[in-house]
């Protein structure tokens, strides 16, 4: 969607802020809400089937984005994307926590996060190419759907393969649970155990959820508005933007995932049970001046260089934050604790990040051309706060992980 801001705004007659609700709010709120019951299911039923069902729903909803006839049709389809995607991460985190020892878990989850990075990169590359191919045609005629706008074709082409790729989840065995949850547990007892554990380690959960969520807000805001920034500031085409961001973003993300995963796993193996918060408080703080300089320098290649460095420093955030939580959580509670974290992070991070940028542009600067200032302001505010919160949570993470590993 971030490659298609201009044609969607033109055809639907909406503002940056209204479009940001499609990027973040419609997706994030229902991702967050659906994630809570799915976390309960993950702790009790087949995680492979849960993933398959989620993939099928969100890819079908992506195709339906291409069939939308107005703003609210597109809004509802984005809700379907969020609801389907909510199934993936709690189930995947639980599967990997049962498949890898603690000193290898962060690298495993960092590799898992590469799926998102490669997916985003391919969406930029393929989306950019498709936009370039159909740019000369305002409408395209498809079987069954009839006449669709050129930007709708991008959603259809990106979504269709997922309807078949979801079957790949059945190519591996589901590992045995290390601490299986009881099927007979009542909902009240299950919730009581979860919230009792959260109260026991309250400072860890507060600092973990708040610190990583605020950082996600900045990362998401940059990722989703970067194509529009390049288009508005430098008049780059969709094909040019897709190629550069796809290559630069994917390369930076791959380097960052492996570096961060290896560094943290080595520290965990040596007894550094706060390694996730310690490393990320530093990388989050370092990314702030890089991102601000990149968008204010007014040079597209300086921006791409900054984007590359920021991807190395903070793009592994999903895998790193998930690994920290898995190490601090008992196996029988991982699905539910993961879903609560994802509720907070998706709702306030991914859900709000794009809208904060759009709100700065529409209501503070009141100028579409000032999008770069909005991105700089978001990083300048969010990253130092996130770094401080993560630093303050280091001691509580050491206690939580040490007690969980020794239990």
TrEMBL record:
Transmembrane parts of this sequence: 20-42, 49-69, 75-97, 109-131, 151-172, 204-226, 241-264, 276-297, 303-328, 340-365, 371-393
Keyword Transport recorded: yes
Sequence ranges assigned to domain Major facilitator superfamily (MFS) profile in this UniProt record: 1-398
PROSITE patterns listed in its UniProt record: MFS
Gene3D superfamilies for this protein: MFS general substrate transporter like domains
Stored Pfam families: MFS_1 (PF07690)
Compartments, record wording: Membrane
Keywords linked to the UniProt accession: Membrane, Transmembrane, Transmembrane helix, Transport
Entry GO terms, CC: membrane
GO MF term (any one): transmembrane transporter activity
Recorded topology in the membrane: Multi-pass membrane protein
UniProt name for this protein: MFS transporter
């Amino acid at each position: 969607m971030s490659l298609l801001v201009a044609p969607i705004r033109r055809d639907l007659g909406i503002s940056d802020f209204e479009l940001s609700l499609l990027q973040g709010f419609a997706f994030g709120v229902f991702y967050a809400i659906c994630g809570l019951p799915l976390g309960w299911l993950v702790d009790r039923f087949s995680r492979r089937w849960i993933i398959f069902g989620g993939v099928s729903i969100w890819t079908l909803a992506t195709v339906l984005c291409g069939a939308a006839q107005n703003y609210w049709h597109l809004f509802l389809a984005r809700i379907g994307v969020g609801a389907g995607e909510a199934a993936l991460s709690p189930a995947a985190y639980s599967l990997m926590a049962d498949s890898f020892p603690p000193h290898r878990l962060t690298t495993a989850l960092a590799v898992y996060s590469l799926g998102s990075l490669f997916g985003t990169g391919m969406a930029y590359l393929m989306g950019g190419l498709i936009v370039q191919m159909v740019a000369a045609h305002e409408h395209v005629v498809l079987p069954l759907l009839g006449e669709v706008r050129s930007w709708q074709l991008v959603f259809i082409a990106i979504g269709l393969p997922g309807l078949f790729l979801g079957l790949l989840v059945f190519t591996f065995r589901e590992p045995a649970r290390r601490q299986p949850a009881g099927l007979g547990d009542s909902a009240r007892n299950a919730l009581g155990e979860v919230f009792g554990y959260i109260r026991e380690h309250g400072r860890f959960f507060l600092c973990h959820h708040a610190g990583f969520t605020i950082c996600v807000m900045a990362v998401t805001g940059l990722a989703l508005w970067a194509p529009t920034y390049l288009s508005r500031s430098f008049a780059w085409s969709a094909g040019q933007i897709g190629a550069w961001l796809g290559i630069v973003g994917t390369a930076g993300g791959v380097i960052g995932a492996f570096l961060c995963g290896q560094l943290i796993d080595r520290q965990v193996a040596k007894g550094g049970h706060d390694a996730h918060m310690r490393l990320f408080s530093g990388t989050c703080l370092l990314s702030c001046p890089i991102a601000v300089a990149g968008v204010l320098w007014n040079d597209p290649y300086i921006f791409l260089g900054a984007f590359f460095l920021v991807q190395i420093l903070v793009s592994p955030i999903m895998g790193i934050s998930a690994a920290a939580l898995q190490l601090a959580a008992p196996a029988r509670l991982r699905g539910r604790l993961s879903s609560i974290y994802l509720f907070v992070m998706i709702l306030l991070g991914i859900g709000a990040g794009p809208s904060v940028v759009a709100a700065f542009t529409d209501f503070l600067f009141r100028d579409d051309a000032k999008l770069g200032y909005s991105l700089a302001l978001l990083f300048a505010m969010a990253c130092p706060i996130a770094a401080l919160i993560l630093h303050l949570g280091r001691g509580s993470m050491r206690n939580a992980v040490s007690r969980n590993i020794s239990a």
